[in-house]
Amino acid sequence: MPPSYLPTYQPGYYPPSAPYPSPLPSSPFPDAYQPSAVFTGVASFLGPAAYCQGSALDGYGTYDMATSMSGTFKAASTPSAIQVFVVVGGSGLPCADEFTGLPLPFAVAGVVDEGSERFAVASPVTRLLQYVTSTKLQDENNVKAAYSFVGVDASNGPTGSLAAIKSSTAAIRRTGIKMVFADASLVSLVITAVSTLAAFPTGTLPKCTTEDALVAAVYGTIGARVAASSSGFIALDGSSLFTDVVSAAAKDRCGAVPQTISSELVQNLLLAQGSLLYQTAQRELSTTATLIAELTAMPLEALSVASRVLYVLQSRAASAMAGLDGNPQAVQELLADWANSLEWAPVSLDRMAKALGMDSVPPALNVKIAARAAGPLTQCKVAVNDMYQMSTTQAVTDSKGAAILQNVMGPLVAVPPGCRDAVLSTSRTTVTNSYPLVALTPLDTENAVVDAVAVLTTAVFLANAATAPTVEARHISADDYRAVYSFFGVGRSGKGDALPSGADFVRQNWPSASPVGARAFMINLQLQALLGPLSGFVSGLLGGSQSTDSVAHEFVSLLARDLLSGNLSAADSAYMDQLMGGYYRSATPSGGSAAAPTRRHHHRRLAGTGQPLSADEMSSLLSVVASTVAGSSALLTALDQQVVAAAESGSALNLAGIYLNAAQIASVQQTSMAPALSQMAAAAAAGDLSALQSLMASFQSEFSGANLLARVQAAEIDASALAGMLSGGNATATTESGSSSGGSSGSGSGSGSGSGGSGGSGGSAGSGGSAGKKKGNTAVVVGCVVGALGGVAVVAGTALIVYKVKQARSRQHVSPRGSRRFDSQEPQQLEGGYDAEAGAGVVAMGAASLPPVPSAVTMPMPQTVGAFAPPPPAEPLPPSGPAPLPHSVVTASEPGTPEATQAAPAAPEAAALAPTPEAVALAPTPAPAAAAPVSWPSLAPPAPAAPVPVIAPIV
Predict the structure, then answer these.
(1) Please, are residues 67 and 88 in contact by the beta-carbon 8 Å criterion?
(2) 3-class SS at 404?
(3) How does 662-688 read in b/e, with b if 16+ C-beta sit within 10 Å?
(4) Can you tell me the distance from the alpha carbon of 532 to that of 6, in angstroms, rounded to the nearest whole number?
(5) At residue 317, what are phi and psi to the nearest 5 degrees?
(6) Which of 719, 615, 608, 610 is nearest to 661 (CA)?
(7) Comparing C-alpha atoms, which of 212, 320, 335, 220 is closest to residue 283?
C-alpha cells in the first residue's frame, strides 16, 4: 500500500485555536548565549497558515514559534547567525489554511531578510530557497529571489502574496495576484507529484518511505531544475514539467531503478494520468494580461479560484492516483466531475474577503435578469458565469426577456447574438441582436437588466482597474452603473429626471412614468446604433476578417476608455468617424490607406475591377456613414431633450409616444440602415468604386432629412411588447398604488397635422394613426406624427398614456414581471417547443472572456456618484485600444416596396398602447394641452436651402 499522503482529517476540518506564542521561545543555549535578535513574519499556504507550530533554524539551534489566525508570527534567533530559516507546519502538526479549511499537507518555509526590519515570509514558493544554491540568490530580498525561480517578479511583494493582493495600489495588487497563482501552481505540482510517487508499487522507492521524504524529493528536484536552468527559473505550465519532475525525483532522490520508471504501470498510468490531472489544474490557474486586469478589479475571484483548485487536489488527487492500479479510469472519473468539484468545494469566501479588507460576502441569491436590446430578448439561451463560486450555467429567457439565475453571486451574464428582439420584431420581420451583451451584476441584487449600458459599465469598471493607480478591492456595484448614466447626464440628483427613491440603474425599478426611464431607454438605443450597425459595417470593410462580435468587443473597450477620459460622445458624427477609422487603420497592415489611384486605375475601378480604396476615398466613405448614422441618432437626442425640458418645467408630456418614436428610430437603424451599410461595406471591400458611389448617394439620401423621417413614421414595431416591457420592467420595489381608470389620450398640433382620439377604459383607439394587433408579435404601425424638419415636431400619440411629469414622479405600484424558473442541470424546454428564431448559441464564458482593457486611460474611476464629467465640446480623442458587447437584424421590408405594400394591412385602425394585465395603473389626468414639442435637427446633407417638406400624419 502506498503511504497515505493526505491527512486523516475530514474535509472542512479546522484545528482548535492555539494561544498566540510568547515573543521569545526558550533557548537551548546557556544564559550567555540567549538569543536577542527578534524578527517577525507571516506564513501562508494559499490563505494564512493559521494556528500553526513552527521553528526558526539558524545553525546554532532551533527555536519554537507559532502563528496567529492571520498567519503572522514573532520569533527570535541567534544574533550572530548568518542565515535563519523558518519552517511552519509539517507532518503531525496542527496547522490549517484559512481559505480551504484543510490542514497543510506539507510544511512551508522561508528565509529571514536581514534588512532594517527583519522579516520572514514562509510560503510554498519561498520553501524553494532551501533547495537552490546560494549562488542563485542574486537578489538581496529573499522573497523576490524565490518567486523569480518560478518566473514571477515579486519586487512589489516583499511581505508576501496576501499583503500584496490586498494593496489598493494597482501595480502591487497585480504582483500579489501573480504570487498567489504561483503558490497555487507550485502546490498543485507538489501535491500531484507526491500523490503519483505515493502510488508507485510498494518498495520501489526505498529512499522515500514517508510523506515528508516524498515532498522533500519533489522540492529538491524542482530546486535542482532551477539551479540548472540558464534563465534561473522554470515555467510551471511546461508541458513536460510534471513527467520530468516525477521521473527525476523517483530515480535521483527516491532510489527507483530504471525498470520501475519504465514499467507500463508508471509510464502509461501514473505519469500519463498524473500529468493530465496537473495540466487540468494549471489551466484553471493560467493568467493573461486581460485576466490579470479582471482579477485586479476583483481579487476575491483570484483567491476563490486558487483555493478551490487546491481544495480539490488536496482532497481527491491522492485517492485517484492510488486507485489507478485497480481502476484505470480513477483520474478520468475525477476530471469528469472536475467542474462540480470546484463549485462545491467548501472554501471560505468570507475569510478571503476579510484578508482583502472587504466587507463580508453576501449570500448567493436567485437573480432575475432581463435581457434587452431595444426590447426584451426572448427565448434566448443565456450563459452565466459565477466567478466566485466557479459555476457556469445556462438559462433561457421567457417571452418577456426574463430568466431566473439560481443561487448566484454577482455573476457575469452573457447574452449571445441572434436573440429575437420582441419590440423590433413583427409578424413579418425578425430582428435580432447582432453582438453579445456581456455584463457583471452586483453581488447584493435580486434583479438586473442586461443591456448596452450594463455592458459599457462593466467595461468601464474593468478598464479603470487596469489603468488607475489605485483600485479598491470590490465587486461592481449600483454606483458604477449610476456613474455611467450620470456621464450622459441621466438621473442626476436634484434634476427633473432624478432617480426615484429606492430605484437604481441595475434593477431599473422606477415607475414606468418616470422621465429617468425614458432617458435611460434612449441612451441604450444610442449605444446600440453605435455598436450594432457600425460594428457590422467595419467588419464588412475588413472583408469579414474581423467578426461583428470582435469589432463590437473592441468598440466597447474604446468607449470605456473615452468615457473615463471624458471624451465619449455616442451620437456625434466626428466621434463615430474616428471610432471606425481608428479601428480600421489598426486592423489593416497598410494602416487603411492606399496610394492615390492613377487615371487608368480610376477608370478600371469605376468599371468594377477592384482596387483598394485610397485614403481619401475611405475617409469620404467613413464621413458619409458617420454623418448619416449620427443624423438618425440625433432624432433620439431630440426626443431626449424633450423629456429633459418637460421634466425640468413640469409640463405635460406624452412619454409613451416618446418610447414609441424612439423604438421606431431604432427599428430603422437596425432593419433598414444596417443592411444598407453592409452593402456599402461589401462594395468597398471589393474595390467596386462605381457601385460604392451609387450606394453612398442612395444611403445618404434615403436616411437623411424627409426620407429618414418618413421611414421612422412607417417603421413597424410591436407596441404590445413595448407596453409589456415598460409596465413589467424589472421592478421589485412595492410602492403605493395610484388609482387607475380610462382616460383621454393626448392631442397635439404642429407643422404636421393630426389628432388623438379619446380612449375609454377599454383602451379604444382614436384617429391619427394606424393600429395592429396587440398580441402575438403582430406588427403595429404606430400613429406618432413627426413634424417638419427644421421646425416644430409634435409626438401626437394615439390612445397612449399621457401624464404630467409632476404626477408621474409620484409613487406607483409596479408589478414585477412573471418568469419561469429554470433548472440549469436539465435540458431547457422552450415555450411552444424549440424556436428556430431564438438565439441558441452560447458565448464562451470564464474570466478570460471579459473584455480586454485599453492601454491608456487618463482619468481615474470616480469614487462618488456623478463624478464623470460630461463630454467637453472639444473634438474627441481618436479612439484606440481593446473589451466586450451587443445588436442586429434579419431584414425588413423597405417602405414603398412592392413587398411592403402587399404585406401592409388594409385600412388599419389607429394604434393603441392599450392597457394590459401587466400595465401600470397610472393616476388619471385630464387631457393636457399640446405636449411639449421637439425640434428635430436638420438631417439633410449640406446643400442650398430648399423648401422644407411637411410630413403628414399617417392615416
Answers:
(1) yes
(2) strand
(3) bbbbbbbbbbbbbbbbbbbbbbbbebb
(4) 55
(5) -65, -45
(6) 719
(7) 335
Q: How far apart are CA 932 and CA 653, in angstroms?
A: 6
Rounded to the nearest 10 degrees, what angle do helices 655-668 and 615-649 cross at? 170
The tally of CA atoms less than 13 A away on the side-chain side of residue 603 is: 2
Q: What share of the chain is helix, strand, coil (3-state, %, to 5)?
A: 40, 10, 50
pLDDT at 138: 53
Among 103, 315, 115, 54, which residue's Cα sits nearest to residue 195? 315
All three cell numbers of 416, joined, read 449571445
Radius of gyration of the chain (CA): 33
pTM above 0.85, yes or no: no
d(CA 187, CA 150): 12
Nearest to 267 by CA among 277, 275, 255: 275
Residue entry with cell 501595480: 171
* Measured distance CA(865)–CA(492) in Å, rounded: 9
What is the number of other CB atoms lying within 10 angstroms of the CB of residue 890? 16
The DSSP code for 910 is P
The helix (run of H) or strand (run of E) holding residue 245 is helix 241-248
- The distance between the two most distant Cα atoms of the chain, rounded to a whole number of Å, is 111
Block means of pLDDT (10 residues each) for the chain, 955 residues, are 36 34 40 68 97 92 93 91 91 89 96 85 97 65 94 95 97 97 98 98 96 97 94 92 97 96 94 97 92 94 98 97 94 96 97 95 94 96 94 93 94 95 94 94 94 97 93 95 97 92 95 92 95 93 91 95 95 95 86 45 45 89 96 96 93 89 96 95 93 95 95 94 79 33 34 35 35 33 32 33 33 26 28 34 33 34 40 38 32 38 37 35 35 36 35 30
Please tell me the distance from the alpha carbon of residue 627 to that of residue 40, in angstroms, as a whole number.
Answer: 66
Work out the number of other CB atoms within 10 angstroms of the CB of residue 407: 15
